[in-house]
Amino acid sequence: MKFGVEFVPYLRLDTMVALAKEVEQLGFQQIWVCDHYHNRYVHSVLAQLALNTRRVQLGPGVTNPYLTHPAVTAAAVATLNELSHGRALLGMSSGDPFFLETVGVKQTKPVTSVREAIHIIRGLLAGEKVEFEGECFTCRGARLRFRPGNHIPIYVGGRRERMLRLAGEVADGALINASHPVDIEDAVKSIKEGLRRGGRTQTDFDYVAYLAVSIDSDEKKARDAARGVVAFVASSAPEESLAHRSISAEDVEVVRRYLRRGDLAKAREAVTDEMLEEFSVCGGVDILVNRVEELKKIGVTTVVIGSPIGPEPLQSLKLVAKRAPDLSG
């Protein structure tokens, strides 16, 4: 089992650089930086992290093809790979429709968009001249004038069945955006179906559980810290992920309504205990240890400690790191 950490770049850049150094020293293998226009720009952040670390792999987790053309993403991640001396990763998905709508972008044909984006990016990273006419993107003789130097793993992030199948068909790994074992087990099944459909016998596919985590010795503090993240997770939950739960559609709609108004404080208050249980892992470190043990049995190969991490993120990561050696085998 490998472990990674998610950075959300609402933090100051110098704070993230310091945290990245600590994350590397604690032995985490991956850093994923989320990509939303309202935070600090993902590739500027990644460049600084690359220049201030030596071993940890790092990349956008995840970027989308709606706000940035795949050719630009290819150039960006190839540059990151050069800066980091071969440590770049690329996480791709279709983005959060809520945030895309705030800048007038409609999330159309999400699976097709991601599939075509990966096709273009792979070609460019391989040094090819890309001629492509798709449903969503076109390239007419596109080519990078430099090479990234080594294979850059591409991960597809998602929660829905079709996107997860796509991960199995075309990617090196999947960032499974879920925290509950039932959801993650279903996701692994969808990915394996994608592997079969793609005729792939790949045995080193990276099944990444991208968890919403909040760890603290004070359980109430941990749960309170998770409310903001869980509000967004619940608001965009697929209907199929709610089917086996006691969470009511009405409760979810209340959260969505506050988020649409931009009232995060009210959205946090509207998050129910059931939402916290289903969409996050929060409490003492033993709760996370038990969850990781469950996920190992399902076939998960990497666990990402995602936002908010905890009321005091570095202290939470130190608690996790102390237990990680027992979970890595």
UniProtKB/TrEMBL annotation:
Alphabetical keyword list: Cytoplasm, One-carbon metabolism, Oxidoreductase
Pfam families: Bac_luciferase
Principal location listed in the UniProt entry: cytoplasm
Cited Gene3D superfamilies: Luciferase-like domain
GO biological process: one-carbon metabolic process
Name recorded for this polypeptide: 5,10-methylenetetrahydromethanopterin reductase
Domain (Luciferase-like) ranges: 12-301
GO molecular function: coenzyme F420-dependent N5,N10-methenyltetrahydromethanopterin reductase activity; oxidoreductase activity, acting on paired donors, with incorporation or reduction of molecular oxygen
GO CC terms, sorted: cytoplasm
Family to which this protein belongs: Belongs to the mer family.
PANTHER family: 5,10-METHYLENETETRAHYDROMETHANOPTERIN REDUCTASE, PTHR43244
SUPFAM superfamilies: Bacterial luciferase-like (SSF51679)
Keyword Nucleus in record: no
Compartmental location: Cytoplasm
Membrane found in the keyword field: no
NCBIfam families in UniProt: F420_mer, PRK02271.1
Function (record text): Catalyzes the oxidation of methyl-H(4)MPT to methylene-H(4)MPT.
Species of the source: Hadarchaeum yellowstonense
Reaction(s) the record says it catalyses: 5-methyl-5,6,7,8-tetrahydromethanopterin + oxidized coenzyme F420-(gamma-L-Glu)(n) + H(+) = 5,10-methylenetetrahydromethanopterin + reduced coenzyme F420-(gamma-L-Glu)(n)
Entry's EC annotation: 1.5.98.2
